Backbone:
C-alpha cells in the first residue's frame, strides 16, 4: 500500500491524539486520590477521636467543592488557557493535601483537605475532558472514558501507597508525601496539554457519530431551563449518591460486615479501582453505541442487583467482592455517561461550563450519600440499612427514565 503525505499526516495525528489521553489519564490518576479515602478513615478516627459520621466529612466536602467549582474551571480555561488553569489547580490540590498533615481537629482537616484540595480538583478535572473531546470528535464517549479511567484506577496505585505510608509513620505523614507528589506531577503534565488545530482533526470530523448529536449549541443559561438538564442531573445524582457513599465505606463494610482483614481489604480496594476505571470507557462506548437511555438503565440494573446482594447475602464474603466490584464499576460508568450525555444533548461548544453545572449532581450526591451512610451507621451500628433508601431512589429514577421520551 502506497503511503502518501496525506496518509502519513493522518497516521501521525492519530498517534499524537492518543498521547493526550495518556496525559489526561495520568492527571486523573493523581486527582483520584480521594477514592482511597476509606484507607485514611480508621486511622483518622483513632488519631482525632471521631466517629464514622465525622470521618466521612472531609471526603464529602472534598467531593462537594470538587463538583461546585467545575464551572469555575471552565471559565478560567477560557480566560487564562488550559495549561495555567491546570497548574493553578495542581498548586491548590497539593497545598490542600499537604496542609492536612498538620490537622489536629476535624474542622482543620475539612478546611484543608476538603475545601482547598476539592477546589484544586474542581479547577483541573474538566480541562483534560474538554481537550480530549476536541481531539476525538469521532468517538467522544470512548475517549473521555479512557481519560477518566485514570481517576477510577487511582486506588490501585494510591491505596497501597497510602497504606504503606501510614504504616511507616502515620496518617498525617501520608497526607504530606501525597500532597507534594500530586502537586508536582499534575503541574508538569499540564505543560503538555493543548487543544487541537482544525487541520489536526479535520479527518475525524466527517466520521463523527452524528446520530445523537445536538442540533443546538446550548448556553448554560439555556441548558438549565430544559427538562433534559434536570433529568440528566437527577440520574447523575442517584448514581453518585450510591457510588460515592459505597466507595467511602468500602473498608468499614468489608471489615465489620464481612470480617475481612485490613490487608485483604486494602488489596481489594486496589482491584475495585480497576473496575471503576473499566466502567468509564465501557459505558462511554455503550453511550456512544446504544444511546443515553439504555446506558442509564443498564447501570441502574447493575446497582440494584448489587444492593440486593449486599442486603440478603451479607454472610458470604464472595458477595462482598462481587457487589463492591459492581458499585465501583458503576460509579465509573456515571462519570462517562454524564459527560458524554452533556455533549450529545447540549453540544460541544460550551461543554466545559455546561458539564460543570451537570457535575453539581456529583457534589450533592457525595455530601448526601456520605452523610446519610454515616448517620445510619451511627444510629443503627450497621451500614446495611443504607441500602434500603438506595433501592427506593433507584426505583424512582428508573421509572422516570422509562417515562422520559427523549
Residues:
Amino acid at each position: 500500500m502506497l503511503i502518501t503525505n496525506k496518509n502519513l499526516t493522518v497516521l501521525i495525528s492519530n498517534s499524537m491524539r492518543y498521547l493526550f489521553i495518556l496525559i489526561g489519564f495520568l492527571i486523573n490518576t493523581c486527582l483520584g486520590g480521594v477514592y482511597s479515602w476509606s484507607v485514611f478513615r480508621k486511622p483518622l478516627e483513632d488519631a482525632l477521636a471521631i466517629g464514622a459520621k465525622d470521618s466521612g466529612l472531609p471526603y464529602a466536602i472534598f467531593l462537594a467543592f470538587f463538583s461546585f467549582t467545575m464551572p469555575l474551571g471552565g471559565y478560567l480555561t477560557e480566560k487564562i488557557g488550559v495549561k495555567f488553569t491546570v497548574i493553578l489547580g495542581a498548586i491548590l490540590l497539593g497545598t490542600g493535601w499537604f496542609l492536612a498533615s498538620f490537622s489536629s481537629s476535624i474542622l482543620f482537616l475539612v478546611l484543608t483537605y476538603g475545601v482547598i484540595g476539592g477546589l484544586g480538583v474542581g479547577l483541573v478535572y474538566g480541562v483534560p475532558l474538554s481537550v480530549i473531546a476536541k481531539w476525538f470528535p469521532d468517538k467522544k464517549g470512548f475517549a473521555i472514558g479512557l481519560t477518566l479511567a485514570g481517576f477510577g484506577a487511582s486506588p490501585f496505585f494510591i491505596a497501597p501507597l497510602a497504606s504503606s505510608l501510614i504504616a511507616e509513620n502515620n496518617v498525617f505523614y501520608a497526607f504530606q508525601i501525597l500532597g507534594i507528589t500530586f502537586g508536582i506531577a499534575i503541574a508538569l503534565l499540564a505543560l503538555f496539554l493543548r487543544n487541537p488545530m482544525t487541520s489536526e482533526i479535520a479527518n475525524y470530523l466527517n466520521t463523527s457519530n452524528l446520530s445523537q448529536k445536538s442540533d443546538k449549541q446550548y448556553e448554560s443559561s439555556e441548558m438549565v431551563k430544559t427538562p433534559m438538564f434536570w433529568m440528566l442531573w437527577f440520574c447523575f445524582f442517584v448514581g453518585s449518591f450510591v457510588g460515592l457513599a459505597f466507595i467511602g465505606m468500602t473498608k468499614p463494610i468489608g471489615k465489620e460486615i464481612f470480617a475481612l482483614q485490613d490487608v485483604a481489604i486494602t488489596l481489594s480496594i486496589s482491584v475495585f479501582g480497576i473496575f471503576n476505571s473499566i466502567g468509564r470507557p465501557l459505558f462511554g462506548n455503550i453511550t456512544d453505541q446504544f444511546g443515553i437511555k439504555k446506558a442509564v438503565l443498564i447501570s441502574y440494573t447493575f446497582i440494584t442487583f448489587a444492593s440486593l446482594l449486599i442486603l440478603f447475602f451479607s454472610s458470604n464474603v464472595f458477595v462482598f467482592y462481587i457487589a463492591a466490584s459492581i458499585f465501583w464499576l458503576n460509579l465509573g460508568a456515571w462519570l462517562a455517561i454524564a459527560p458524554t450525555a452533556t455533549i450529545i444533548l447540549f453540544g460541544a461548544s460550551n461543554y466545559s461550563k455546561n458539564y460543570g453545572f451537570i457535575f453539581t449532581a456529583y457534589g450533592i450526591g457525595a455530601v448526601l450519600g456520605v452523610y446519610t451512610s454515616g448517620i445510619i451507621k451511627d444510629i443503627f451500628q450497621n451500614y446495611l440499612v443504607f441500602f434500603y433508601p438506595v433501592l427506593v431512589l433507584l426505583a424512582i429514577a428508573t421509572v422516570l427514565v422509562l417515562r422520559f421520551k427523549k
User: Anything to note?
Assistant: The longest helix spans residues 106-135. Residues 1-5, 7-12 have pLDDT under 50 and may be disordered. Residues 16-403 form a domain with the Growth Hormone; Chain: A; fold (CATH 1.20.1250.20).
